[in-house]
Design brief:
The protein is an alpha+beta fold. 29% of the residues lie in helices and 23% in strands. It has one domain (11-148): OmpA-like domain (60s Ribosomal Protein L30, Chain: A, 2-Layer Sandwich). A four-stranded mixed beta sheet has the order 1-4-2-3. The radius of gyration is 14 Å and the shape is globular.
Length: 150
């Protein structure tokens, strides 16, 4: 297993985040997306939801991530990709920042619960958000995909 958690997408680099550019702490290159990684996706996807304007993980989200971390412990993981999204409320910059914070909190939680691998954190902010307000709760989320080592 990889040894260091990596999370790159700093506030001032929103454009780079949208294009999934990242580097690992171990100075090796991690694929910019799960599709480009070429490894096998394991344990399916995990998705957790957030309250409006919040990046805090509630009990339901923590339980879902606990189950995901347990599944991942049975596999040799190359990288975990975490993508944060938001509803369209707020500016583009605020939403990119909030999406990034959501993804970072999910990665931190998984790392703290035994997933000591490289993380690729991406924020999509409000990109592709649904136009109808009743559907916005599904936009306030973080999606997690793990890729097994080759």
């Amino acid at each position: 297993m990889r040894h260091a958690m990596t999370a790159f997408c700093l506030l001032g680099l929103a454009q780079a985040c949208a294009h999934h550019e990242t580097t690992t702490a171990s100075d090796t290159t991690v694929a910019r997306s799960p599709e480009a990684a070429g490894g096998e996706q394991v344990c399916g996807n995990a998705q957790v939801f957030f309250s409006p304007g919040s990046a805090n993980l509630d009990e339901v989200a923590q339980q879902r991530l606990d189950r995901y971390a347990t599944c991942l412990s049975d596999h040799e993981i190359d990288a975990i990709y975490v993508s944060g999204t938001t509803d369209p409320v707020g500016t583009q910059e605020e939403n990119l920042s909030l999406g990034r914070e959501r993804a970072r909190n999910v990665a931190d939680y998984l790392h703290d619960h035994g997933c000591h691998v490289d993380f690729v954190i991406r924020s999509f902010g409000e990109r592709d958000a649904l136009a109808s307000a009743p559907l916005w709760p599904v936009e306030r989320s973080a999606d997690v995909t793990a890729v097994a080592a080759h």
